[in-house]
Design a protein that fits this description.
With about 700 residues, this protein is of the alpha+beta class. The protein contains 16 helices and 27 strands. Strand 8, helix 16 and strand 9 form a beta-alpha-beta unit. Helix 2 packs across helix 5 and helix 5 packs antiparallel against helix 6. The protein is flat and about 100 Å long.
Length: about 700
């Protein structure tokens, strides 16, 4: 078939293609394409680059190469091919827009720009015989439409700031106010980091914006995202628990994923009904959400983010003072002083270097003087101040009223009478005041409380809420693997702290659990839990580590079945590198299997007796990562003929089983001794009935280590 004949066929088809494009564009809302045509729409991003590049080459040809033109038939053929593909790309784009909601203004601009490209590409066929100036004018118009439309397409896909210089701060300004809600203090920062990129003011997928509580409550294309029914979880909960491979999983595959703790925080918050008003101090002290807030919200004082301009806080930390950023990405600092008998004014004065960043200051129990208050009043952005039992007199506190940002102040233990309290509150901008004296009570101060209705005055013995919590003790032993034995050393910087521990899986308590006095030795699989206690303080969080006995290292290892392409770890070495994935499914330390069992072969240079094997696996039911369902072991001395050694089955998990790493054990009969061992680690081939939306589908298993004994 000649060039002329091909270009004639394409030219005739354009008289049908471009009117079809206009019909689809004008009646877009009324058209409901079938599944096949929706799939055709997905070809849009795959082929759009061809007409973009080809179109730019055509413009260059019209502008600079008209003195050395191609033969007329070749020109028509190339222009026909370009116009036909441009039209096809537009049709695919219109079909794609029916599947995902985008910002309407951007979408309309991109859609009609694409239609303009298609029509102008068609027009180029009929200007070949016009004068040079006309051809160049139309070429420049074509280039303008091409650049404008493709830029809007980039903004649709990558956000309105697709070509903007990268910003160092998150798009959502999160308040570090001490009166902030659970949502403001911990949920919003997670959403800002992991969700706003696709669901913010600059890019709106699914008609859903998550940048404000109002927009979250408004929901998106599929309605309310927070509401749960008796038989169905909320859409928000469902999307973050889908497997990463699912196209509806949020955040999408390839984006920064939620950590295990972040998922748990969102879970707990969603269980409150997505409460935007509840504050951390309204949660019970044992509430798991509050525990996670305390765990995640502070940033390690040792180092600031190397990519930020925030100062390093390590110089302000000691045995008697801690300084931490309120949460990751915040530039506001919380400072706590403790051990009043060792208080030194210089430690407070040193904070002048970061005086504009301090938002929370806790000086409870410190023997303060006027010179200390002279330093504190320099902290112009201070929002919460604890001066309980600081031996100050009421008159000296007057200077604190100059701190316009100070909203919450606690002065329990400082002796006030009606007159001095009235004087202290006069013209004060506080929002909340905690006060308690030996003689004072809410009844005694009732007149003052009624005089200042705009200030929430809490009068009475509220000291229990102000007791400081001990920081966590540390385990100075990095390896979690026990080749023969491992010696455990525990440490805490605060003097007078008692560290108690357990090795049987129970939680340490202040009376019955063994007290740590010296290094102790572990020689078997052990779950170690430690906790710090000190009289007059709240006990620390529990620090937990699991140690694994592994006496034997194989001489060779081979994966007989291959893991999923997205969860390959470090191949077979993943199982024997003694590098645990811990409680995080997003690390690259896991071997993931779903469509098949994990079959692995280990070998020794000579016959080797074994008593048991442990496989360390990660479990997160919401992400469809289930426990191992069974382990089958076989042995051989020639590597060809294998004999069954042992097999163990594990029960189907319960719906509310916790997430985390755990080990699965398979024991062997006494006297088992082979040169080669083959293990088949099985996944659940069908998920249980309580997983209704995925019932009958296979579950994942994530494995990162085997231990031989």
């Amino acid at each position: 078939m000649t060039e002329k004949r091909i270009s004639q066929i394409l030219e005739l088809s354009l008289w049908a293609l471009n009117p079809l494009i206009l019909i689809l564009a004008i009646f877009n809302q009324e058209i409901q394409p079938g599944l096949f045509f929706l799939w055709i729409g997905k070809l849009h991003p795959l082929v759009l680059h061809f007409p973009v590049v080809f179109g730019m080459l055509i413009v260059i040809y019209f502008l600079f190469f008209q003195k050395r033109r191609f033969p007329n038939e070749t020109e028509k053929l190339l222009l026909s091919i370009n116009a036909f593909i441009a039209g096809g790309v537009v049709i695919c784009g219109i079909l794609l827009s029916k599947q995902t909601a985008y910002d309407n203004d951007l979408l309309n601009f991109h859609k009609w720009g694409g239609i303009g490209i298609s029509l102008l590409s068609w027009l180029l066929l009929y200007i070949l015989d016009l004068n040079l100036m006309t051809k160049r004018t139309i070429a420049i118009l074509f280039l303008t439409v091409l650049i404008g439309s493709t830029h809007k397409g980039a903004q649709l896909t990558h956000g309105i700031n697709a070509l903007s210089f990268p910003q160092s701060k998150p798009e959502l300004k999160v308040s570090g106010d001490v009166n902030s809600t659970v949502f403001e203090s911990i949920v919003a920062p997670i959403i800002a980091q992991k969700c706003i990129g696709c669901h913010g003011p600059d890019k709106v997928k699914g008609d859903l914006q998550l940048n404000t509580p109002e927009n979250i409550l408004k929901g998106g294309k599929e309605g309310d995202i927070l509401k749960s029914t008796k038989n169905k979880s909320s859409l928000f909960y469902e999307r973050i628990h889908l497997p990463v491979s699912d196209e509806k999983h949020m955040p999408p595959d390839g984006k920064l994923q939620l950590t295990s703790d972040e998922i748990t925080i969102l879970n707990k918050w969603l269980l409150t009904g997505g409460n935007f008003k509840i504050k951390p101090n309204e949660l019970a002290s044992t509430d798991s959400l509050l525990v996670l807030i305390h765990k995640i919200k502070p940033v390690s004082p040792q180092k600031a983010d190397s990519k930020s301009n925030l100062p390093d806080l390590s110089e302000f930390n000691s045995n008697y003072c801690t300084a931490n950023y309120l949460f990751h990405g915040s530039d506001e600092v919380e400072v706590i002083f403790f051990q009043g008998s060792f208080y030194n004014h210089e430690n407070l004065k040193r904070l002048e270097k970061i005086k504009t960043r301090i938002a929370i200051l806790n000086m409870q129990g410190m023997p303060l003087k006027k010179e200390d208050l002279d330093v504190i009043v320099q902290f112009k952005n201070l929002q919460k101040l604890n001066l309980n039992n600081t031996k100050l007199d009421p008159g000296s506190l007057e200077v604190l009223k100059s701190l316009s940002a100070l909203k919450v102040i606690s002065i329990c233990g400082i002796e006030f009478d009606d007159r001095s309290l009235d004087k202290f509150l006069e013209k004060a901008s506080f929002a909340e005041l905690h006060i308690w004296t030996k003689e004072g009570s809410e009844k005694k101060f009732a007149k003052i409380i009624s005089k200042y209705p705009d200030i929430k005055i809490i009068a009475g013995d509220n000291m229990e809420d102000q007791i400081l919590k001990i920081s966590n003790p540390s385990i100075e032993q990095d390896s979690l693997i026990i080749p023969d034995h491992v010696d455990i050393k525990l440490k805490h910087l605060l003097k007078g702290v008692i560290i108690r521990y357990t090795t049987d899986g129970s939680d340490p308590d202040s009376l019955k659990s063994p007290e740590y006095k010296d290094v102790f030795r572990l020689s078997q699989n052990t779950m170690l839990k430690i906790k710090a206690f000190r009289s007059g303080w709240k006990s620390s969080d529990i620090v937990q580590r699991t140690y694994f006995k592994s006496e034997i290292h194989p001489d060779s290892i081979l994966l007989l079945t291959q893991p999923d392409a997205k969860h390959r770890g470090n191949g077979s070495k993943t199982l024997i590198d003694y590098d645990l994935g811990e409680n995080n499914r997003y690390t690259d330390k896991w071997l993931g299997y779903r469509e098949s069992n994990m079959d692995v072969l280990i070998g020794f240079n000579e016959v080797r007796p074994l008593n048991s094997v442990y496989f360390n696996a990660y479990v997160e039911l919401g992400a469809e990562i289930f426990p191992i369902s069974g382990i089958a072991a076989q042995g051989s001395n020639d590597g060809k003929q294998f004999k069954k050694i042992s097999e163990v089955k594990f029960p189907i998990p319960l719906k509310d089983d916790p997430s985390g790493a755990r080990t699965f054990k398979c024991t062997f009969p006494k006297g088992t001794s082979y040169k080669f061992y083959k293990f088949s680690v099985e996944n659940f081939k069908k998920m249980p009935v309580w997983r209704k939306e995925r019932k009958g589908k296979p579950a994942w298993i994530f494995v990162d280590e085997l231990f031989l004994n």
